[in-house]
Amino acid sequence: MYRVSTPNVLVVEDEDNISFLLESALGLAGMEVASVATGEAAIARIRTDRPDVVLLDIMLPDVDGYEVLRRVRNDGWSGPILFLTARDSAAERVRGLTSGGDDYITKPFALEEVVARVQVALRRSGHSDEVTLRVGELELDDEAYEVRCKGDVIHLTPTEYKLLRMLMSNAGRVVTRSQILDHVWEYDFDGESAIVETFISSLRKKVDLDEPHLIHTVRGVGYAIRPPR
Ligand code: CA
Fold first, then answer.
1. Radius of gyration of the chain, Cα coordinates, nearest whole angstrom
2. Ligand 1 centre from 4 Cα, in Å?
3. Which protein residues have a CB closer than 5 Å to ligand 1 (ion)?
4. What is the tens place of the pLDDT at every residue in 15-73?
5. Which sign, positive or negative, has the C-alpha torsion 165, 100, 70, 84?
6. Does the pTM of the predicted model rise above 0.70?
7. What is the pLDDT of residues 81-132, one digit of tens each?
8. For residues 53 and 121, what is the distance between their CA atoms, to the nearest angstrom?
């Protein structure tokens, strides 16, 4: 049976005590946590483990967090990165976000805040701790690996299921084609977004035949699922 996998988090932090605290807090929140203390180790680990989210300290003993981010993005890994840093200047914050980071956490931080932000990043990227997702009369039940529409079970292929799950965990938000490619297929199709359209169209035929439609195309960007207004 399909299970929601435990999210994998990589902590990149050279201060042992902070790293230890983060590992314990995220572990308690039900995540699988690995940690490394240098930028080079982080790059190697992201390549091999492809974590679901990375907490990345900016000041590291070898290459800094920005360089780690640049190199893993070059490698084609597009998962969420949350920067950790003691530097609380607007310029650093802007640099962290414009260089492709998803969030920016300033030290000292409250552990609950870090856990909450990691959970938000996971939900955005299609990992969710909710077991049953609902949009309008459509339900996706991860425990039963089942999709129901008005109570009727609908049979989906594993890829259709994963795609619908990603849309539903981001209900109300636009999910871009590249996010879908990366999350649902987990590797880079080199911009072959036609495959996404094909799967969206088969999904529509199975779960979204009735008006008002739930799945919306956002031209040139991606898709969003929304409950009827
Ligand atoms: Ca540091």
1. 19
2. 33
3. 14, 57, 59
4. 999 999 999 889 888 788 999 999 999 999 999 999 999 999 998 999 999 999 999 99
5. negative
6. no
7. 999 887 666 666 667 666 677 778 888 888 888 988 898 888 777 765 556 7
8. 7
Burial class (CB within 10 angstroms; exposed 0-12, middle 13-18, buried 19+) of 56: buried
Between the CA of 45 and the centroid of ligand 1 the distance, in Å, is 18
Strand partners of residue 125: none
Amino acid identity, position 228: P
> Which residues does 71 contact at the CB level (< 8 Å), separation at least 6?
43, 63
Q: Find tokens 């459509």 and name the residue.
A: 138
54 C-alpha to ligand 1 centroid (Å): 15
Which residue in 59, 137, 153 sits closest to 145, CA to CA? 153
Whether residue 71 contacts residue 43, with contact meaning beta carbons closer than 8 Å, is answered with: yes
Which are the contacts of 157, defined by CB distance < 8 A and separation ≥ 6? none
> Chain-centre distance of CA 158, in angstroms?
19
Q: How far apart are CA 223 and CA 16, in angstroms?
A: 42
Q: What are phi and psi of 175, to 5 degrees?
A: -110, 125
Distance in Å, CA 129 to ligand 1 centroid: 30
CA–CA gap between residue 225 and residue 166 (Å, rounded): 10
- HSE-CB of 119 using CA atoms within 13 angstroms: 15
8 A C-beta contact, residue 183 and residue 126: yes
d(CA 182, CA 189): 8
CA of residue 53 to ligand 1 center, whole Å: 18
* AA letter at 192: E
